[in-house]
């Protein structure tokens, strides 16, 4: 008997999972993440709230540590105004002032950093590390008054 040319032959079922579509989806996701990752690291302009802050106690003036863009450090406290100082001297001076305040029962020493806007981030962080070595717990950053918005 001659086989029928229109008949179908039964093939065994393939029970294996086809992973090709999954690989395609993963490659598309990889491309999406590669494109969007650099966008996540850029800065975003935000409109910060403007609030009235608490004023410092008037009986104790803060110590102001100034850092110029060239890396010079100046300190202002009590009657000493804008004295040039090295990093080791800064740590010793602040440690002495801190110990004097703790012996006298005065609140902890208040230190403010007055840094030039052209300073590198690393220089300011190094200064803050020096303040931490001197035992200073709280450090503030001084800013200038914001420029008025241009009128159109």
Automatic annotation (TrEMBL):
<keyword id="KW-1133">Transmembrane helix</keyword>
<feature type="transmembrane region" description="Helical">
    <location>
        <begin position="21"/>
        <end position="40"/>
    </location>
</feature>
<dbReference type="InterPro" id="IPR003400">
    <property type="entry name" value="ExbD"/>
</dbReference>
<comment type="subunit">
    <text>The Tol-Pal system is composed of five core proteins: the inner membrane proteins TolA, TolQ and TolR, the periplasmic protein TolB and the outer membrane protein Pal. They form a network linking the inner and outer membranes and the peptidoglycan layer.</text>
</comment>
<dbReference type="InterPro" id="IPR014168">
    <property type="entry name" value="Tol-Pal_TolR"/>
</dbReference>
<dbReference type="Pfam" id="PF02472">
    <property type="entry name" value="ExbD"/>
</dbReference>
<keyword id="KW-0997">Cell inner membrane</keyword>
<keyword id="KW-0472">Membrane</keyword>
<comment type="function">
    <text>Part of the Tol-Pal system, which plays a role in outer membrane invagination during cell division and is important for maintaining outer membrane integrity.</text>
</comment>
<keyword id="KW-0132">Cell division</keyword>
<keyword id="KW-1003">Cell membrane</keyword>
<keyword id="KW-0812">Transmembrane</keyword>
<protein>
    <recommendedName>
        <fullName>Tol-Pal system protein TolR</fullName>
    </recommendedName>
</protein>
<keyword id="KW-0131">Cell cycle</keyword>
<comment type="similarity">
    <text>Belongs to the ExbD/TolR family.</text>
</comment>
């Amino acid at each position: 008997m001659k086989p029928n040319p229109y008949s179908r032959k039964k093939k065994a079922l393939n029970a294996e999972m086809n992973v090709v579509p999954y690989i395609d989806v993963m490659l598309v996701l990889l491309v999406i993440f590669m494109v969007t990752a650099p966008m996540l690291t850029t800065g975003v302009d935000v409109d910060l709230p403007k609030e009235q802050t608490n004023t410092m106690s008037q009986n104790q003036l803060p110590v102001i540590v100034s850092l110029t863009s060239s890396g010079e450090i100046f300190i202002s406290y009590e009657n000493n105004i804008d004295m040039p100082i090295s990093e080791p001297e800064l740590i010793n001076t602040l440690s002495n002032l801190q110990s004097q305040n703790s012996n006298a029962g005065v609140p902890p020493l208040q230190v403010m950093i007055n840094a030039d806007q052209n300073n590198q981030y690393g220089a300011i962080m190094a200064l803050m590390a020096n303040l931490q070595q001197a035992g200073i717990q709280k450090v503030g950053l001084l800013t200038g008054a914001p420029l008025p918005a241009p009128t159109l």
